[in-house]
Amino acid sequence: MVQELEEGLPLEKVKEFSLEELLGMAIKAEIGARKFYESLAERIEIPALKEKITWLAGEEGKHEALLRKMYGSMFPGKEVLYPEEHIGPELQPVARELHSAQDIIELIRWAMRAEEIAAQFYEEIEKIVETEDRKRLMRYLSDMEKGHYYTLRAEYELLLDWEMYSQMMHVGP
Amino acid sequence: MVQELEEGLPLEKVKEFSLEELLGMAIKAEIGARKFYESLAERIEIPALKEKITWLAGEEGKHEALLRKMYGSMFPGKEVLYPEEHIGPELQPVARELHSAQDIIELIRWAMRAEEIAAQFYEEIEKIVETEDRKRLMRYLSDMEKGHYYTLRAEYELLLDWEMYSQMMHVGP
């Protein structure tokens, strides 16, 4: 296992946690994802890719804020509870230097996996929350993570052909 | 039919055009999508949504540049050929004032439809181009449009509950 991705519990374990715990896990996961993308962006020198990863970091920051708002409305005045466990893979900050395209490709692949499971995780929480507005917010977050998944998959696909990537990514808008 | 979305030919018609024509259609569609998003962003007052739509406009601009680069490498020195017809829906600039959330919701729905078909259109072109690098570029574009589709679907989902949207979208990162 690589250091940037901590494998967590399988999705079925969602049932064993309270909604409060699940939201705490989600907030923790969004923070982890943001730090992962921020640290990855710092280590990437291709401007187009750096910009995209920085954008992803900002998106995860917004999700964290949305989740905190929902948490606050459901558990007013309570500190967020962060369980030790987490459902699905959780991204960790990138601490090492990246030496090759292969290093970046590998990290993008972990991020894809984490985004895919995050989308499913929000779908599971959607089943648990009771009001339509909370269900709606979970669908929003799930769709956003699906969007991230495809954005990353697009980059991944081009990165596999490094020569083409460097050539193509020098085009301006 | 609304003015912002022109229904084009069904996807099966791809076979009836040359690759040069299909690339011309794709470039025209990316230009149309960019102008659609730019004009939509100008008419939207919610900062978070305006920013997202502006981001989409920039993305389509990059796709246009990538396609022109590919066109240039396949048909060196040739002017881009823009057929009259187009496959699937094509987005047009928004010329009217938007008066309600419902107006925005409707436009986001057209955009979702256009992005979805665009993703399939690139998959069709992928089958036609012969070299691996060109197939790869088509997969890249197809995945990017899928990413846009889910990003839009997320916003659409929240917009349906306008009160919640305005409340949620005031959170900072």
TrEMBL record, chains A, B:
Gene Ontology MF annotations: metal ion binding; oxidoreductase activity
Domain (Rubrerythrin diiron-binding): residue spans on this chain: 21-156
One Pfam family matching this protein: Rubrerythrin
InterPro entries, per the entry: Ferritin-like, Ferritin-like_SF, Rr_diiron-bd_dom
Source domain of life: Archaea
The protein's name: Rubrerythrin
